[in-house]
Structures are given as C-alpha cells and as structure tokens.
Amino acid sequence: MIQFTDVYKRYTNNYEALSGLSFHLDDGEMAFLTGHSGAGKSTLLKLIALIERSSHGQVLVNNQNLTRLPKHKIPYYRRQIGIVFQDHNLLHDRTVFDNIALPLIIAGENHREIGRRVRASLDKVGLLGKERSLPIALSGGEQQRVGIARAVVNRPPILLADEPTGNLDPDLSRDIMQLFEQFNQVGTTVFIATHDLGLIQTLPYRQIILDSGRLAQGGLL
Amino acid sequence: MIKNYALRHIQVMLFSLGQLWRQPISSLMTMVVIGIAISLPSGLYVLLHNVENVTEQWDDASQISLFLQQDISPEQAESLNETLKKWPNISETHYQSSAQSLDEFRQLSGLGDLLDSLPSNPIPAVIIIKPNEENLNENAITRLVTQLNELAEVELAQLDMEWLQRLRSLNRTAQRGISILAILLSLSVLLIIGNTIRLAILSRQSEIRVIKLVGGTNRFIRRPFLYTGFWYGLLGGLVAWIIVLISLTLLNGPVNELSQLYGSQFTLHWLAGTLFLALPFTGLILGVFGAWLAVGRHLSAIEPE
Lengths: 221, 305
What we know:
The structure holds two protein chains of two kinds.
Chain A: E1 2-10, E2 16-25, E3 30-34, H1 41-48, E4 56-61, E5 64-65, H2 74-78, E6 81-84, H3 96-107, H4 111-124, H5 140-152, E7 158-162, H6 170-185, E8 189-193, H7 197-201, E9 206-211, E10 214-217
Parallel strand pairs in A: 3-8, 3-9, 6-7, 7-8
Antiparallel strand pairs in A: 1-2, 1-4, 4-5, 9-10
Chain B: H1 2-22, H2 24-59, E1 64-68, H3 74-85, E2 90-96, H4 98-109, H5 112-116, E3 126-131, H6 138-150, E4 154-159, H7 162-203, H8 205-213, H9 218-261, H10 272-299
Antiparallel strand pairs in B: 1-3, 1-4, 2-3
C-alpha cells in the first residue's frame, strides 16, 4: 500500500532529513512510526501526503508513483488519504458538521449523501449530537475526534496521523487509539507517527523506528 | 451531477454574500468606494448625453444663407432659386429679393429714415437654403457650402451654425476625457477589489491550507473569492446607480429653471433604465476580473506545511 525505495529528502540548506529509506506497509496493515524528534517522522508523512517530494528514490502509494504525479493531480490523490493532525486543523468559524462535510463537499457529493455520511462518521467517533457545535466549544479530545471523523468521512483506503495523541491525557489517548484500531479492522491501512511509546508498547502492531533519517528497525525489507 | 454542481455554485454564492453581510461596515465601505469610482464617469456620461441631445435638436435649425451678387436681376435670382430646389442635397429654398430684405430690415431695425437717405439699396437678395435632412452630417454641409460659394451668382454662402460645430467638437473632447477617466477608474476598481480579495485570502490562509490537504482543487478554493468579487462589483454597481440618480435629482431643479429661462422644452434624460442594467453589469465584470487577478497571484503561494 505504501512503499518507500531508497528515498532521500534533502532541504535547500543541505540538511538531509531522510537518507536511503526503504520500507513498505501492506494493504490493511496498521503500523506506528516512531523515533526521537528530528528523526524524520514528519518529513516521511509529508512525502506520503505529497506536501513535499523526495529528492531521490521512489515513493509508491496505493499503486501510484508519487515522484511522477503531476501537480494538478495532487488534490485527487489526497482524497485517497485521510490525515489526522496533532493540532486538529479544524475550521473554527464552521460547525462540526461543516468541518466533517468538507471532504465530501470538495468531492461534489450530493446533499443527502453528505448528511448521511457525516452522521455515520460522527456516530463512529461518538460525537453524534454535537454536529451543530462550533469546534471551540469542544474539549481537546472531542476536537481530535472531529479531526478523525473528517479524515475518514470519505472512506479513504489510507489513514495517516501525525502525533494524534500529542496533547491528550493517557485515557483519552487510549480511546483515540481504539478508534484507529476500529478503522483498521474494517480494512483501512493506518499509519500513525507518535512518540507515545508507553501506549504503543501495549499494542500488537509493527513499529517503524527512524533514527536521523535512517531506518533503525521495522522495515521488513 | 450537473444539478449538484449548480447547487454547489448557488451555495458558494450565498456563502460569499453571507460573509460580506457578517462584516457590514467594511463591506459597505468597499462597495461605496467602488460605487463612487463607477458613478463618476457614468454621471458625466449622462450629462454629456444630454448636451448631445440638445445639440441634435438644433440640427433642424441649421440653414445656409446665400447672399447674391448686387448685379443679379430678380429674374436671374428666381431661376437660380428654382435650380437649387432641384439639388438632391437641398430640401427647401426660400428666395427673398433685396427689396423684401430691405423692408424686413427696416421693420426690425427701426432705421427707416436713414435707409431712405441712401442712394441705392445696399442689402443683397438672399436665398435661404435648408439642407436635406439625410445629409445633415457636418462634412456634407461643409461640402454643400463650398459648392454654393463657387456659383457665379453668389457673393457669399454662409453656414449659420459654425458655433454648433465648435460645440460638437468640444463635446467630442469631453467624450474622450470621460473615456480616459472611465478607464482609469475601472483600473482603480480592479485594484480596490484585488486588494480586498488579497486581504480576504490572507485572513483565510489556514482554511485554504486545510482545504488543500483534504483534496480541494485550486478551482474549488478560488470559487468563493470569485463570488466575493462578483458581489462587491454587483453591489458597488448598484451603489453607483443610486449615486448617479441622487446627483441627477439634485441637478434636475436648476436645469429645469435654466431651460425655462431659455423658453426651452428641455428636460434631463436620466437613462435610469439603461444605467440600472449597465452599471451593476460593469461592476460585476470588474469585480470578478479583479478577484481573479488577485486569487491567481496569491493562491499558489499558500501550500500546506
């Protein structure tokens, strides 16, 4: 589903964020991406989301070669990936419903389908009944759930998360991880960057560990 | 699918309008600035149009006086008169012998005694010519006057309306000036709207990033801003229309007084209907174009981080 082959990422100031990275994630797999800060976790996720492109090497996601994907196709590519952010990235002047509906509106879904799917998504994250609230009126954990609901509302095959539990206490973090597991159980490939080692040690998923832009463990190649 | 697309457009359209509504003061100020910029050339255009209307009415009055040589006999003059009547570019002629002219002058001037003391009649016979209506443009009239001047019997052919030509030429100058003004002010409307949209884009940077991250195309992101420009332009055009109408209302009283003093039937043409269509339309074209320029420049610079 996600395959990196000898990937390098150099920035203009000659800083090498990723060096010769190779790994792959199977279809329907759930895995964690860990490593100390500055190890290249964010860069790796940015390459998958096509926020940045690799300097060298090949990135294949869902059978598409990202190195060759033309710029005007990026929006359509991103619709296959749900992204969850540490700081939620919600639109604060719009209701929970409108926030979650955004990917569907962008995709041009019709009104009835949007209502149906947003409510299904809210139901899954346990926020049914909050659809008219503004994000600011919700707790941190609830805002993160809204972020997750938005990421999965158009049923993407891949779900990426960047430190999704970074700002949450251990109980809430466990709840959020359980949510990701539920999505994985219905076939979504889930890839979560986190440094919450205590939490992920208790879970039976592969850990891909980065060290200074190199693979330290877990590549399976 | 098409129905969805149209529905989405209407939603975005209303959403943009709602955003203007949520900031009434700043939106209104922008619209008034746009309105003033559009109303200035259009108001001047309305006034100029009125001046043209007046001078067109005077076209009917344009006539040529043909003063004949002193030694032309009344019979010769009559036969010239008959010939001229047959010219295609002359619609009417009126012959007035030197004796008749003298009588007329005696009555109008009250200098009867003085005229009697003259040894001979100094006033020439005259043929008054009305050019054919179809040939009323100035070139044709000037050509006709030249032709008439070349006739052997004619001492002088004189167009009575030279000042009208000057007025017309003045009008044309004013028209050119208004066109230049209109272009400059259209440019300023573009800049005003462009700048307003630029600020709107900057204030919604984080929103644009999020939309790009969840797969929004540039076209999708551009749409609400284009509709914002659309509304600014349309409503600015309506403001311009109101400004023009108020200005004309203020002018109408004095103009009517003036025309009464001249014993004229003249009233202001408001062009209210034409302007009601033309100004908002001009506004919305400028609005969408200005927004399009601004969005094109600033949108590509905002990418997710």
